[in-house]
Amino acid sequence: MPVPRVAMLPEVAAQRRALADLLDTVHRDEWTTPSLCHGWTVHDVLAHLTLSTRQSTAGMVLGILRARGDFDRAEARAARERAAAHPPGVLTAQLRATAALDRRVGLSSPWDPLVDVLVHSQDIVRPLRRRLPTPQDLAVPALEHVWSNAFYGRPVRRLCGVRLVATDTAWAEGAGPEVRGTAGDLLLLATGRSVSASAVTGPGVPEAAARLRT
């Protein structure tokens, strides 16, 4: 059963702490590994996650202005600057210390921290060949939040022509040839990540992959 909104913050905190515990095992030479987030290292992604509870609305707006209105470029620059300023051990400690902090920038939704930690955790752990399962009861509300959300590129449009079907819970969206996978893997697809061929199956996989490349 999906986690209700009122119970979400403790779950977000638990996911942040679980990631921090896993990051304690990462070796020094692994931090430059490219993440699933295109153009970012796993160190960059960790730095971004620590900004979730530290970046002010004014700071975010200033960053967007510096990037000439390009939000993605602004976020990438902020993450890289923070990664350059703080070693991974410090960032991991920061992630753990503010895991339960209910703070986010203006205009963001209470659901965004959940999406942030679920997706970016996988951005980090999968290229490192580590395992941190995405709980299905968290993945479902995250999927519902991003599915038609313009901030996430409106997956309902980006993946138009295929139907996503979760294999571990009762969730499905879209119309067309099916793409089947766990709710966690479908969340990665919905947010523009490529997943391994073994993670998703079905006749809609080639079409979904093609749409993610455009």
Describe the structure.
It is a single chain. By secondary structure, the protein is mostly helical. It folds into two domains: 8-125, no CATH class; 136-213, Nonspecific Lipid-transfer Protein, Chain A (2-Layer Sandwich), CATH 3.30.1050. It has helices spanning 8-23, 42-51, 57-66, 71-85, 88-97, 112-125, 136-146, 155-158, 183-190, 205-213, and strands at 163-166, 172-174, 178-181. It has a three-stranded mixed β-sheet. Helix 1 (8-23) runs parallel beside helix 6 and helix 2 runs parallel beside helix 5. The longest helix has 16 residues, at 8-23. It is globular. The mean pLDDT is 91.
Short structural summary:
With 214 residues, the protein is mainly alpha-helical. Helices cover 50% and strands 5% of the residues.
Contiguous runs where pLDDT drops below 50 for at least 5 residues: none
- Morphology: globular
Average pLDDT value?
91
Helix content: 40-55%
- Rg estimate, integer Å: 17 Å
Secondary-structure element order, N to C: HHHHHHHHEEEHH
Main pleated-sheet profile? 3 strands, mixed
Please state roughly what percent of the residues sit in beta strands, choosing from under 5%, 5-15%, 15-25%, 25-35%, 35-45% or over 45%.
5-15%
What is the β-strand count?
A: 3
Query: How many distinct folded domains?
Result: 2
Q: What's the tally of helices?
A: 10
List the main descriptive attributes of the protein structure presented here.
three-stranded mixed beta sheet, MDMPI_metal-binding, globular, Nonspecific Lipid-transfer Protein, Chain A, metal ion binding, mainly alpha, 214 residues
